[in-house]
Amino acid sequence: MIDTAALRHNLSRVRELAPGCRVLAVIKANAYGHGLTTAAEALAGADGLAVARIAEALALREGGCRARIVLLQGVRDAGELDAAAHHDLELFVHQPWQVALLEDFRGPQILRVWLKIDSGMHRLGFAPAEVPAVAARLAACRAVAQPIALATHLADAERTDLPVTAAQLRAFAAATAGLRGDRSIANSAGLVAWPDARADWVRPGILLYGISPFADRTGADLALLPAMTFETEVIAIRGVTAGERVGYGGTWTAPHDARIAVAAVGYGDGYPRSAANGTPVSVAGRPAAVAGQPSMDMLTIDVTDFAGGLAVGDRVELWGREVPIERVAAASGTIAYELTCRVGRRVTFSTRGA
């Protein structure tokens, strides 16, 4: 279930954390698994939306979204540039050939462009030494609205004990000195932990979905609300005797006579197969733990200590308000981003929220 009221709450929380900044809400990868259109509608109060690829932006336009939409990877060829211009999309520019595409563009539209600068992540962007020449080419380009925006991406903003982010901020400031245009630096971790990174535009992603980017904090610790609740139900309850093994490979052995609830969910639905014994779940509103290797369609849960009744059909929450997704991710050796993005197609999505 996707809680659209939680999405709106989290956007308000971003504005509290980064006062005076405009917000480019990142909804790439199907809004981190939350539903592209659902998130776009719920986050209509943002100053713009960001996606990775043009197909995501076109899906939004076809669905009636008229918001500012920014392509974080820019365009890949002249055909995509034509489509971006036709649909009033904004472009990150991070490669020389993308600059050349804009110089060769002969359409009537004027495009808004964000110059991507590699301040130290070494993934996409122009090296700082290249920025003056590239900025001059874009300034001379008939098809580009002026002034261009200037952006970079932080590689380790969730770590305040490392010098990396401070070095990136210095590199970006030096590369853009004397250039006009809005600045955009901070991702979710950056806008929380690095006030100097907030600049004109912040680009939150994971925060909008109620999830912390920090290893030592949950979304609740940051006054966020989880937008996704992943839940299923109990389909069987059985006893096992001390010494019996449960599940594939027998990774959990009953230390004493135990009771196991079987839930209708598995890695075929996006629940992590790597979830270790003891990974938290909630059964009928009470805390419980994974016991045994998750399989494709089923999950075994230790409910031995439950007092009172437990029945087939009782609700099981895998993550949401009762079970922080950050704790599930940590117990599974992954990150919460991956968990939300991997929820499977056979899972039925519903929405709630005023």
Quick structural overview:
With 354 residues, the protein is of the alpha/beta class. The chain has 2 domains: 2-213, TIM Barrel (Alpha-Beta Barrel); 230-352, Lyase, Ornithine Decarboxylase, Chain A, domain 1 (Beta Barrel).
Structure commentary:
With 354 residues, the protein is α/β, with parallel strands linked by helices. The protein has two domains: 2-213, TIM Barrel, CATH 3.20.20; 230-352, Lyase, Ornithine Decarboxylase, Chain A, domain 1 (Beta Barrel). The protein has eleven helices and 18 strands. It has helices at 4-17, 28-32, 36-42, 54-62, 78-86, 96-104, 131-139, 164-176, 188-193, 325-332, 336-341, and strands at residues 2-3, 22-26, 48-51, 69-71, 90-93, 113-116, 149-151, 183-184, 201-202, 230-240, 245-246, 252-253, 258-263, 280-283, 286-290, 299-302, 315-319, 351-352. The strands form four sheets. Strands 8-7-6-5-4-3-2-9 form an eight-stranded parallel sheet. A six-stranded antiparallel barrel has the order 10-13-16-15-14-17. A two-stranded parallel ribbon has the order 1-18. The longest helix has 14 residues, at 4-17. The protein starts with a strand and ends with a strand. The mean pLDDT is 97.
Record keyword descriptors for this entry.
354 residues; alpha/beta; TIM Barrel; Lyase, Ornithine Decarboxylase, Chain A, domain 1; six-stranded antiparallel beta barrel; 11 helices; 27% helix; 20% strand; elongated
